[in-house]
């Protein structure tokens, strides 16, 4: 949208905000500054709805209200800070929540997923009255424009479906990372994935990429189990009908799976 008349360096846009714990998410006008050093201003094309946004709304992540929701997005760069050289207006990007520093102990040993010093925008976006917003996962992209660290923009090809590729920014990365980085799935191993939503299906894909040979999809919903079998699972268990522990033992020679990934996040699991 257009710049605020009185401050040409600030953009007035519509965004989804939650003002206090448990309050409804509301569409508000927010103010987004032009990018300073190390920052990029982007026009958001798509934004996925992720469970993490619900956790922000319910108070499960912090108390830094008001939160600007949304973090799983494809966008087009509209402006960059004066020192940003590897990104330019018009670039199509995915927004990522970990712009790694490249210099800390974790980065130095080739494990940037554990970076201690990830970057976000340093300037604050605000409500119309100047109240600073906390952007979800340092992104805040349920908005027409958002301000991020330039390193949070990962360039993508122009011709890919923005709604599909945006999922790489959270759910797919979380699931594939759980299998490959956290679970360290190796060739020939058996893997059970409990919960076959977006993250679970991505964990199944990650297990497949890592070379697991027995990949067991577990879900209460038979339709999700069928979908998982089409995306890399070698076996499916509908846990509404079958005891998953016994069924996983049966499929793994009585030993149980080498790696089990919980993509549900409930204590019962
Ligand atoms: Zn997410
Ligand atoms: Zn680092």
The CATH topology of the largest domain turns out to be Quinone Oxidoreductase, Chain A, domain 1
**Strand order within the widest sheet?**
7-2-1-4-8
Can you identify the CATH superfamily of the largest domain? Medium-chain alcohol dehydrogenases, catalytic domain
Helix coverage percent = 10-25%
**Average pLDDT, all residues:** 94
Please give the CATH architecture of the largest domain.
Answer: Alpha-Beta Complex
Please tell me what the overall shape is.
Answer: globular
- Tell me the span between the first and last alpha carbons: 46 Å
Heterogens: zinc ion
How many strands, what sense, and barrel or not for the largest sheet?
5 strands, mixed
Q: Which percent band covers the strand fraction?
A: 25-35%
Name the CATH class of the largest domain: Alpha Beta
* Regions with little confidence, pLDDT below 50 for 5+ residues: 1-5
Number of helices: 7
Q: Tally the structural domains.
A: 2
Over all CA atoms, what is the radius of gyration?
21 Å
Instruction: Classify the secondary structure makeup into a structural class.
Output: alpha/beta
Helix-strand string: EEEHEEEHEEEEHHEHEHEHE
Could you tell me the number of beta strands? 14
Family: Belongs to the zinc-containing alcohol dehydrogenase family.
Domain Alcohol dehydrogenase-like C-terminal: 198-269
InterPro entries: ADH-like_C (IPR013149), ADH-like_N (IPR013154), GroES-like_sf (IPR011032), NAD(P)-bd_dom_sf (IPR036291)
Cofactor: Zn(2+)
């Amino acid at each position: 949208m257009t710049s605020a008349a009185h401050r040409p360096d600030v953009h007035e846009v519509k965004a989804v905000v939650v003002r206090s714990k448990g309050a409804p998410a509301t569409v508000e006008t927010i103010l987004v500054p032009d990018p300073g050093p190390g920052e990029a201003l982007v026009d958001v094309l798509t934004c996925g709805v992720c469970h993490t946004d619900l956790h922000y709304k319910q108070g499960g992540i912090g108390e830094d209200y008001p939160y600007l929701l949304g973090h799983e997005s494809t966008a087009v760069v509209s402006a960059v800070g004066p020192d940003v050289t590897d990104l330019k207006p018009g670039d199509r990007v995915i927004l990522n929540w970990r712009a790694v520093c490249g210099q800390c102990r974790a980065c130095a040993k080739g494990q940037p997923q554990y970076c201690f010093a990830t970057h976000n925008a340093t300037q604050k976006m605000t409500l119309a009255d100047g109240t600073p917003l906390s952007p979800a996962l340092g992104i805040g992209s349920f908005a027409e424009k958002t301000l991020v660290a330039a390193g949070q923009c990962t360039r993508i090809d122009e011709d890919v479906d923005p709604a599909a590729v945006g999922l790489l920014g959270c759910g797919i990365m979380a699931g594939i990372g759980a299998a490959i980085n956290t679970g360290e799935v190796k060739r020939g191993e058996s893997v059970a994935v409990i919960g076959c939503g977006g993250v679970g299906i991505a964990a199944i894909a990650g297990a497949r990429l890592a070379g697991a040979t027995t990949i067991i999809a577990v879900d209460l919903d038979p339709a999700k189990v069928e979908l998982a079998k089409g995306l890399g699972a070698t076996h499916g268990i509908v846990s509404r009908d079958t005891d998953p522990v016994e069924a996983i033992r049966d499929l793994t020679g009585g030993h149980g799976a080498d790696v089990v990934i919980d993509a549900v996040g409930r204590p019962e699991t």
